[in-house]
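Q: what sequence does this backbone want?
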C-alpha cells in the first residue's frame, strides 16, 4: 500500500539535483566565514528577500529565537499572534532562553492581528511595565490554515509597530507559498519587516535549514547569537548546496501543491459530514473537521496509509507537497470515503 503522507511538507526528501549539488559542494569552515557555498546561499537569500544580509541556521525555530534575542533583552515584552508558531510550537524558547515575556494578541481566522488590538498591547512607558520591543508576524499562517498575509496588511501593521519604536520580525517559514499564491516576489511581502526568516526544508524540499534575513547589523548580531546557541556550523556547505537548488529551482512548483490542496479540500467538502472552509485554503494547508460519527479518524486513516495530523477534537491538518501528486490526492480521498462508509 502506498503511503500518502500529508502530515507536513517537512517530510519532503531532497531531489536528485540537490543530492548531486551536496556531493559536489565546495566547502570551508563557515565559523570563519570561509564556506563559499554557504556564502552563496546567504547572498541569494538576502537578495530574494530584499534584505542586506542573511544567516543560515539549522531550523526555523532557531531563526525565530535568534530574531527574539537580536531585538529583545531579558525583561522586554514581545507581541506574538495567539495562534503563531512561536507561541505554540517553539517550546517557549523566547521566554526560557531569551527571558522575554510573550504577549499573545488574538489572531483572527486569517492569521491577521487586529491593528487596534496590537496598539492596545504596546506598553506605554511606565515604571511598572516591561518594554515592548518586537512584533512577530507569520506568513503563511500555519495554524490558521496556510492563510496569506497581504503586502498591504503587512505594511499597515509594521508601520504601526515602527511608529511605537518596535521592530518587526516576520516568520516566513512558508513565505514562498504566500508569494506564489499572490503572484508577487517574496521580497515585497518581507519589505515592511525588519527581518524575515524562511525555511528551505518544507515545500522547497531541501533536507535542513532556514535563513534569517535583515540588515547587516542585525545579521551580525544574529550570527553571534547563533554561535552562542551552538549553531555555529563548520563545512555546512554540504547542506547549503541543497538550499541553493531549493531557491533556484523549487519555488514556482509550489503552485502545484496549492492546486492539490484545493483538490483535496473540495473532495473532502463533498463527503457528507466533513466540513472545510474552502475560502481559507489559499496555499498548501487544509484544515478540516470530520463528522462526530467517525471515531479515531486520524489513526484509522493512518492505518489506510493516509497520514494526517490531529489538531485536537475533530479538527485535522493535511499538507500537500512535492511528494504527493494529484493522483495521490484522489487515492487519499477514495480511502477516506471507504473509511467513512465502514464507520457509518
Ligand atoms: N512547522 C512544523 C511543525 O513545527 C508544526 C510543521 O509541520 O508545520 N514557523 C512556522 C510557521 C512553521 O510552520 C514551522 C515548522 C517553523 C516556524 C519551525 O521550523 P523548524 O521545524 O525548521 O524548526
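A:
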Amino acid at each position: 500500500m502506498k503511503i500518502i503522507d500529508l502530515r507536513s511538507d517537512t517530510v519532503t526528501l531532497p531531489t536528485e539535483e540537490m543530492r548531486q549539488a551536496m556531493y559536489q559542494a565546495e566547502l570551508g569552515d563557515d565559523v570563519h566565514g570561509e564556506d563559499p557555498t554557504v556564502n552563496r546561499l546567504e547572498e541569494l537569500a538576502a537578495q530574494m528577500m530584499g534584505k542586506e544580509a542573511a544567516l543560515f541556521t539549522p531550523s526555523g525555530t532557531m531563526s525565530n529565537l535568534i530574531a527574539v534575542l537580536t531585538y529583545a533583552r531579558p525583561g522586554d515584552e514581545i507581541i506574538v499572534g495567539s495562534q503563531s508558531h512561536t507561541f505554540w510550537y517553539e517550546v517557549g524558547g523566547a521566554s526560557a532562553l531569551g527571558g522575554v515575556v510573550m504577549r499573545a494578541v488574538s489572531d483572527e481566522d486569517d492569521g491577521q492581528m487586529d491593528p487596534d488590538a496590537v496598539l492596545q498591547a504596546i506598553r506605554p512607558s511606565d515604571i511598572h511595565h516591561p518594554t515592548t520591543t518586537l512584533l512577530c508576524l507569520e506568513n503563511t499562517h500555519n495554524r490558521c490554515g496556510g492563510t496569506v498575509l497581504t503586502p498591504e496588511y503587512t505594511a499597515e501593521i509594521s508601520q504601526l509597530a515602527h511608529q511605537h519604536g518596535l521592530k518587526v520580525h516576520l516568520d516566513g517559514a512558508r513565505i514562498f507559498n504566500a508569494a506564489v499564491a499572490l503572484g508577487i516576489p517574496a521580497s515585497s511581502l518581507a519589505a515592511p519587516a525588519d527581518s524575515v526568516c524562511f525555511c528551505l526544508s518544507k515545500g522547497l524540499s531541501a533536507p535542513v535549514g532556514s535563513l534569517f534575513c535583515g540588515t547587516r547589523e542585525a545579521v551580525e548580531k544574529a550570527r553571534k547569537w547563533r554561535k552562542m546557541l551552538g549553531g555555529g556550523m563548520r563545512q555546512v556547505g554540504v547542506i547549503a548546496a541543497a538550499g541553493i537548488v531549493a531557491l533556484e529551482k523549487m519555488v514556482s512548483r509550489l503552485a502545484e501543491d496549492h492546486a492539490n490542496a484545493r483538490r483535496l479540500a473540495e473532495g473532502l467538502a463533498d463527503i457528507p459530514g466533513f466540513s472545510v472552509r474552502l475560502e481559507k485554503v489559499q496555499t498548501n494547508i487544509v484544515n478540516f473537521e470530520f463528522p462526530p460519527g467517525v471515531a479515531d479518524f486520524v489513526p484509522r486513516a493512518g492505518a489506510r496509509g493516509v497520514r494526517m495530523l490531529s489538531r485536537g477534537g475533530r479538527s485535522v491538518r493535511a499538507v500537500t507537497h512535492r511528494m504527493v501528486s494529484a493522483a495521490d490526492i484522489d487515492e487519499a480521498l477514495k480511502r477516506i470515503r471507504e473509511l467513512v462508509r465502514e464507520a457509518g
